[in-house]
Request: fold
Amino acid sequence: MSVIVDIVNAITDVYDVVQKFFTEDLYHLLTQFIAWCIKWAAVAYWKLKLSALSFAYDVAIDLLSSLQLSQYLQSFWGALDGRIASMMQFFRIPEAINIILSGFFTKFVFRFLGF
Reply:
C-alpha cells in the first residue's frame, strides 16, 4: 500500500512542478528573455549611433576641406587689424570657429544619414 501512496505522491509532485513551471517560471523566463533582448537592442542602437557619428565626423571634415572654408577664414584673419587679430588669437576665436563649423557640418551629415 505504501508503494501506491509513494507513486501517487510522486505524480502529484511532478504535477505541481509542471504546473508551477507553466504558471510562474515560464512567465519569469519570458520576462527575463525579453528584457535581455531589449537591453541588447539598446546597446546595439547606441553602438551603431556612435559608429555613425564617427563616420559623419570624417565626412564633415572632408566636406570642410573640399569647400575650402579654412582658406576663406585665413583671408578674413589676414584682413583684420593687427591688434584685433592678436586679441582674437588670445581668446582662441579661430579655434572656436573651427570647432563650431566642424560641429555644424557633422550635425548636417549625421542628419543626412537619418540619425
The mean pLDDT is 89. Helices lie at 2-67, 69-79, 82-90, 93-113. Residues 2-67 form the longest helix (66 residues).
